[in-house]
Amino acid sequence: MSAKITFFPVDNGDMTLVRLADTRVTTLLIDTNIRVAADDKADATPDVALELRKRLQYDEKGRPFVDAFLLSHPDKDHCTGLAKHFWLGALEDYPDDDLDKHDKRIVIRELWSSPMVFRRRSKNHTLCADAVAFNKEVHRRINLWRTFRSAGNGDRIKIMGEDENGKTDDILAIVIKTGQKFSEINGEYSSLFSAHLLAPAPRQEDELEELLSKNHSSVIMNIELLASIFSSKRVRFLTGGDAEVAIWKRLWEKYQYTPDVLEYDLLQTPHHCSWHSLSFDSWSTYGEEVEVCQEARNALGQARPGATIVASSKKILDNEDNPPCIRAKREYLSILKPVDGIFHCVGDGKRPETIEFEVSSTGVSKIPAGLAVGASAAAAAAPRAGRK
User: Fold this and answer.
1) What is the CATH number of the domain that holds 175?
2) How many CB atoms lie within 10 A of CB 187?
3) pLDDT at 122
4) Tally of CB atoms within 10 A around 212
5) What is the pLDDT of residues 322-381, one digit of tens each?
6) Under a CB-based contact definition with an 8 Å cutoff, are residues 198 and 181 in contact?
7) Which phi and psi (to 5°) does residue 110 adopt?
8) Strand, coil or helix: what is 199?
9) 204 exposed, middle or buried (CB, 10 Å; 0-12, 13-18, 19+)?
């Protein structure tokens, strides 16, 4: 069993599945954007819910599950479909056991959430229904942990970054501090996985904090994966939701003397290949006169030899769109050129398709579309069923 990273075609949105190279096929899902239009068989919207289920394991009660789910930030294009396709509540109340396997909501064994991305987003943005549902489930799990100081499958939670004003001081056992590395998923240590939490940083009284209250502040992680138990090289996957230029600039200022912290074999372009992750200038206003923020470019430019960069976005056209932005794509291509790297866009092709990568001792390689599922046989063979 090899480690795999799957990017689902969700338009300008994120939905990424990481599977470890262990016998249990431990899974980490980062964000979800399951659009209602996919329920209509006559609609061309890819059925990413079905594609996700094909890649999941089912527990002894026949319930599909992910070992961990990370919401990078509570924007609609990162959490759509959450309440419909995932069970948010106590496992003892799970109501879908008599449904067809493709109608059963997915169990989230452990939830990963940051309080700071909710605080920074709530000032100027109303949360969508799925974000509200997620936040409610976060509080259920935190309150449960506060009461019992432990939790089992379906109740576990990790807090990504400390909250403001000491609000997480009494639950530090489930807090991953910004800058910390960890190797546990769903309460179990894995020798095949580690993650370095790079953002969000705790609230600060400076100009950047005001920028973060207006712009996108997301969880940023550099994830390390081993191809197998026999591998020695750890492959790096850098993912950062919709983090924009201010935070990437800050990261470079923090890690410029230890740039290996930001090195990657696979980068998911922030904010769907948006120009705003690389520059403070407006692409629509200045066009080709825009200037790159060199610090942000440095942070996103630590590509290892043969690195791959993936844009989870619509097809990138040579026009004024942003995101995705053709100028951002050109900048990422310039990052890849000296390391002989490859750029992929999930929206390319006549019809957007799931892109899957296999982790090896030399890096990551794209799996041909016809061989990309690698799911449990039962899930892969099951016919599509209508959803409620």
Assistant:
1) 3.60.15.10
2) 15
3) 55
4) 28
5) 999 999 999 999 999 999 999 999 998 788 889 999 998 888 999 987 776 654 433 333
6) no
7) -140, 135
8) strand
9) exposed
What mean pLDDT do residues 252-276 have?
Answer: 97
Which uninterrupted H or E stretch holds 130?
helix 129-148
Q: Is residue 385 part of a domain?
A: no
Q: What token pair was written down for 277?
A: 């992750």
Beta strands in 288-327 (DSSP E): 303-311
User: What is d(CA 175, CA 169) in angstroms, rounded to the nearest whole number?
Assistant: 9
Quote the pTM value.
0.93
**3-state DSSP assignment of residue 244:** coil
Q: Using an 8 Å Cβ cutoff, are 323 and 244 in contact?
A: no
Beta-carbon contacts of residue 196 (< 8 Å; ≥ 6 apart): 179, 180, 181, 221, 222, 223, 224, 261
H-run or E-run covering 350: none
Q: How far apart are CA 49 and CA 83, in angstroms?
A: 13
**For the segment 46-65, what is each residue's pLDDT rounded down to a tens digit?**
999 999 999 999 999 999 99
- Cβ neighbors of 154 (< 8 A, separation 6 or more) are 87, 90, 91, 107, 108, 109
Is the residue at 388 inside a domain?
A: no
Q: How many domains does the chain have?
A: 1
pLDDT band at 302 (very low <50, low <70, confident <90, very high): very high
Strand 342-345 relative to strand 303-311, pairing: parallel
Higher-confidence position of 320 and 232: 320
Question: What residues contact residue 180 under an 8 Å CB cut-off, 6+ apart?
Answer: 196, 197
Residue span of the structural domain in which 240 resides: 4-378
Q: How far is CA 241 from each of CA 216, 217, 260, 268, 370, rounded to the nearest angstrom?
A: 9, 8, 20, 8, 28
